[in-house]
Amino acid sequence: MNIPFLGTWRNRHETPRGAGLATALADDPEGVAELFSECEMLRAQARAAGLELDRSPASLEALDQLTPRWRRDPEVVPWLGNDAGFYLGTVIVHSVPGAAWQVWPDGRPVIRLASGRELDVVESGVSWAMTGSPELSQAFAEASEG
Q1: Which of 83, 78, 94 is nearest to 140 (CA)?
Q2: What are phi and psi of 101, to 5 degrees?
Q3: Fewest CB atoms within 10 A around its CB: which of 8, 12, 69, 108?
Q4: Which residues lie closer than 8 Å to 20 by C-beta, 6 or more apart?
Q5: Percentage helix, strand, coil, to 5, in the chain?
Q6: Distance between CA 18 and CA 128 in Å, rounded?
Q7: Which sign, positive or negative, has the C-alpha torsion 133, 134, 136, 137?
């Protein structure tokens, strides 16, 4: 269906992808970090295995030891991986001095270390959920080295 005024309206009101998240992160970094740390699907998997996710590096090691039953359901894997990446980022921000959330121009949230190095923790989390590699604890160890 061709609605001429709609195209004009969209052109006037479009914002670059990720701009909303970047603005929210700039306005309320603690609130956005709290939202990122929710990771409800990952927390449910952890609870079912008797683990508590407490934002500690030890909790990443415990997650690495879980039996990956979620791999049986290909629809769950990317969602759980996304949560794992956000949780990895949460642990890094909580434990590594100078680490903070940042948003790339494409809208992807990443961790920026004090050294300026940027880590795509969501990509690491999805890879972990799909294949078990990299281990979340290993990704944390690399981040904590600088």
Answers
A1: 94
A2: -75, 145
A3: 12
A4: none
A5: 60, 5, 35
A6: 24
A7: positive
Place of tokens 């052109």: 11
pTM: 0.84
Share of the chain above pLDDT 90, in %: 71
Contact 143, 99 (CB under 8 A): yes
Give the C-alpha separation, 99 to 16, whole Å. Answer: 25
Please say if the pLDDT value at position 38 is more than 90: yes
Report, as an integer, the average pLDDT of 49-55. Answer: 95
Task: Tell me the sheet residues that pair with 110.
Answer: 102
Mean of the per-residue pLDDT values of the chain? 88
